[in-house]
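Protein modeling request. Please complete all fields; requests missing the sequence field cannot be processed.
Requester role: graduate student
Desired output: 3D structure, token encoding
Chains: 1
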Amino acid sequence: MDKLKLSAYEIIEVRKIADIESMGYILRHKKSGARVCVISNEDDNKVFSIGFRTPPEDETGVPHIIEHTTLCGSDKFPVKDPFIELAKGSLNTFLNAMTYPEKTLYPVASYNERDFKNLMEVYLDAVFHPNITKYKEIFMQEGWHYELESEDAPLTINGVVYNEMKGAYSSPDEVLETAIMEALFPDNTYSKNSGGNPEKIPELTYENYLAFYHKYYHPCNSYIYLYGDMDIEERLTWLDEEYLSHYDANEVEVHSQIQLQKPFDAVVSERRTYPITEDEPRDFKFTGDHAVYVISRNAANDVMEYYNQQHGMQCAWFRFPPVYGVGPHGTIYVNGTAKKSGIATFIDNAKEGKEIEIWGDPHIKRDIIYVKDVAEAYVAALKSDLAYGLYNMTGHIQVDLDEQVKAVIEVFGGEKR
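Delivered output (417 residues):
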């Protein structure tokens, strides 16, 4: 490496890494101050990543929102969502971006050399020349914005990151981890959730969002990583000419160091509360006539949670006690055979003036709910911007079998009762 024409870089360290049959290089770009790590070997799966140290000062989620928005078009690639286009048409073996508590990473990988070079250019242009400085709508779409569907509708808040973090904060694990970090690191950035707290995200202004980007997204605050079988000199020269040489480390002053947490003088005890669902722990049997119901219910819950976290959809799901109503559907299927339901049998016997037999203890009370109330609950959830997660629905009135039969006779018995 030190024999190559890399006048734009200072070679800090060269080391053979025998364990992975590679040569490792640590470099610094002289003008921009960018740090570069190169792992050169014969692996065809080429990797590129650029990361920035992005310590948050609050919980508005600004590093997370920037991670989303930088990949919403740039000077060279002015399309609405180049990330989606790459996911559809690239030959990549890895394509993503991640927000950590104190850093933001943009890694890509590909076996195809041409595809790899294209991925590098798209990502570098995204982080250094994003469209976020031109279009406030990108911040509003990915971060947060107000919505009003009609003059009479309530004012609601929406946004990709906002909805994603609403889903995250419904997870006991996420809430517990956040509480632990706040307790362990009260004096530095690790006490702040870099993903964003849904209660705090709407406090982020467009101006503060751009200020955070300009403060930290400079090559002198970056670390660039290259791995695999490639022409290292060509890649580093291209990187210098296309991007790094346009920046001067002497023109900026970036303070992104993480302050050490001071030791505690005494043992600290924290007590927090967090929500749990009835499915925790998810421990159920895979045998018995109830197993398929439990499995299908859990699968439905997981699918809705996927759409919430992946696409920002606001999902609510309900768990009901026995639902009753009068209608044409009076049968249930037991082991594939249609059988008349108990309530349908009661109603038919009452209409025909027949006796109604009760087997077992008639005074065991059960929570039941009317089908119309179920329908109204769905409508209320669809109209609300707060409905999210699992709801156990109840009628709050327990009825025993004897009372239920008497009510059926009263309503359907007529003169024959």
